[in-house]
Amino acid sequence: MNARFVRVAVAAIAMLSTNASSSFAQASGEHSSDHWYDHAVIYEIYPRSFQDTNGDGIGDLKGITQRLDYLQELGVDAIWITPFFPSPNADFGYDVSDYTGVAAEYGTMADWDELVRGSRKRSIRVLVDFVVNHSSDQHPWFKESRSSRDNPKRDWYVWRDGGPNGQPPTHWTSIFGGYTWTLDPRTNQWYYHVFLPQQPDLNWANPGLRKAMFDAARFWLDHGASGFRLDATPYLFEDPAFPDDPHPPAPGGPAALMPYNSGRPENHGVLRELRSILDSYPEDRVLLGESSTPTIEDLAAVYGKNHDEIQLPMDFLFGNLNKLNAAEFKKQVDDAQLRLGGQTPVFFFSSHDHPRQWSVFGDGKNNDQIAKLTAALTLTLRGTALMYYGEELGMGTMSKAELAAIPIGPKRPRADDRDGERTPMQWTSGPTAAFTTGAPWLPVEPAARTYNVASEKQDPDSIYSWYAALLKLRQTPTFRSGGYVPLDSGNAHAFAFGRRLGDGRGALIVLNMSAKPQRVTITGAPGQWASFGKVLLSSPNAAAPTANTFTIAPYGVVIASEL
Length: 563
Ligand code: GLC
Ligand code: CA
What we know:
By secondary structure, this protein is of the alpha/beta class. 26% of the residues lie in helices and 14% in strands. The protein has helices spanning 3-8, 14-19, 61-66, 68-74, 109-121, 140-147, 207-222, 267-279, 296-302, 316-319, 326-338, 357-361, 367-380, 400-404, 453-458, 463-473, 477-481; strands spanning 41-45, 78-81, 125-130, 159-160, 181-184, 189-192, 227-230, 286-289, 312-313, 346-347, 384-388, 483-486, 494-500, 506-512, 518-521, 534-539, 549-552, 557-561. Strands 9-8-7-3-2-1-11-10 form an eight-stranded parallel beta sheet. Strands 12-13-14-18-16 form a five-stranded antiparallel beta sheet. Helix 9 (296-302) links the parallel strand 8 (286-289) and strand 9 (312-313). The structure holds alpha-D-glucopyranose and calcium ion. The site of calcium ion has 6 residues, from loops. Alpha-D-glucopyranose (GLC) is lined by residues 9, 91, 94, 131, 195, 231-232, 290, 352-353.
C-alpha cells in the first residue's frame, strides 16, 4: 500500500451529552440556517502521532486532552480523530475489531470521557471516525460469519461462490491491489473486500448488521461525539447481480472504481437513516464524509436530494489537485461554490492519506511561502476547511528513502506508503519534538528543529503565525458568512475571488501561483472590485492596492477589504 490509494480513493458521557446544549450555542451568522459546521475548521488528528503521555512512543487520547489548550488557541472548531478502536492494525485502525471500545494502546473509555469534557470546556467538538464499509477480519462478527454457511451472521458480510476453474466470483480489483475477493477454505466461498483481505466489507443490506452499526453510532453520540467522519462512504453496496468487470485491470495493477461497487443508489438509504439518527440528538451533530466522487454532480448528490444525508462531503476533486495552477483551482473552486446547490463545500489538501501539502506544492525553494498560499486558499473560501495536524507548522512528508530505513517492529508492525505523512507532531526543537519521552513509533522529521510549535509561536512570520491569523480572520463576518464571488484576475497565474455579505461588505483574495511577480486586473460582478482600502492580511507584506490593477509578489497572497 499504496501510492495508488491516494489517486483512487477517490473513494454520559452519556450524562454529558444530552442536556449540555449550552456548551455549543448555535452559531450566529447572517442566516438563520447557519450551522456551526458550515464555516468550521475541523482539525484532523492521527492519534498515534499527536502526543504520547506514557512513554511507549505511541500517541494516545490523554495526549490529545493535554494539547487542547493548543488547539483552542490556534482557533479550531472541531477535531476529527482517526480510529482509536481496538484493531489488529492491518490498516492502522481502519480495520476495527470492536466498534464501541478504545484500543489499549490509545487508552480507555475514561480517557475518552475526559477528552470530551475538556473539549467541551473549550468549545471544541469531537468527531469520531466511523469505519462503515468494513470491519477487521478479527471482529467477532466476522469470526462468526466465516464459521459456517448457516451461521446467523453469515449474511453480515458478502459471501459468494467462486467462478469456474478456481476463479474469484468477479474480476473486480481492490483499492489496495489484487482482487476484491478472498477464498475462505473452511466454507469454500469467497468474501468481498474493497480494501485489504483483513478488511471484509459489511453487508448493509442485512437488517441485523444495519441495526448493529447504527447502535454503534448511537454509542458514540451518547458518549459526547459531535458526529462522525464517515470512512469510505462510496462503497457500502455492490451491484446485487455482481456482473464481471469487462475491463479488469491486471491484479496488482492500478485499481479501478467501477459502477458495480461504488456510488450505488442504495447508499443513500443508509446515509439518510444515519443522518436521521444524528438529527434526533441535540447540538447540531454532523457527518463529514470521505465521499470521493468522479464529478461535481456526483458530489452534489452526496448531500442528499433533500439535503438530508451527509452535511459535509469532502471535495476530493479539489483535494486531489497537486499542482499550482490558477485556472485549475478556479475551475474546481467555482464548481464547489456554484454547482453544489448552495451546499457547504469542504476543502482540504493534507490528510493521513494525502502527502502533506508543504511537500506536494513546494518547489524546493519557496515551500514556506507556498504553504502560506495553500493555507490562504482553503481558509478564506466559503465553506468548511479541514486541517491535518502539523499542517500549521509546515510539516513535510518523509521521503521514501527515509521511510525505507525505518525498521519494522512491534510499534510499527508494517510499512505503509502513507507513513510519510504520519510522523510525530512537532512540539519543540528537542530530539523527539516533545512528542514522547520514549522512542517514537515513527521518527520525527529532522526539520522539526526549526518547524515546531515552540519556535514558530515566537516568530510572527512563521507558518504557524500565518495560520493563526487566517483562523482569526475567518471569525470576522465577511469570512464567516459572506457569499463567494467568482472574479477574473486577468492573469493566468493568479487566482482571485471575493467574499461578500448581503449588506455589501466584501473582501478580495488574490493568490499568485507562480514564482514571478504578476500584474493582475481584477474584474467581476457584483461591484467593480476597484478600490481596496485596507490589507487584511498579506504575505509577503503588501501595500493596499488602490486600484483594480496591481502587482503581486511571487507566490504572494493579498487579502484586502474594500472599506
Ligand atoms: C479510508 C481511510 C484510509 C483507509 C481506508 C480503508 O480511505 O481514510 O486511511 O486505509 O479507508 O479503511
Ligand atoms: Ca502512549
